[in-house]
Structure prediction request, 77 residues.
Amino acid sequence: MPPPDPLITVSAEILSGSPVFTGTRMPVKALFGYIEAGEPIAEFLEDFPNVTREHAIAVLEMALRAAISEASDVAAE
Prediction:
């Protein structure tokens, strides 16, 4: 099953505007918290079954692209 488009939703009506995985009330920052703590993505997915593996991976890939783009912009200055 492909991840939703857009991957992330921001709405004042959902968790006071915190970015969430589209179609859920799960904050995106929770995934990064798990990674920062050294937890495997499998544990995150087990704890939050409303987020699919494909959706979580797509969000991580989006973050990677953003980080690379920002680093490239800084290097070009």
Q: What stands out?
A: The longest strand covers residues 8-9. The domain at 8-76 is CATH 1.10.10.10 (Arc Repressor Mutant, subunit A). The beta strands are 8-9, 20-21. The chain has one domain: 8-76.
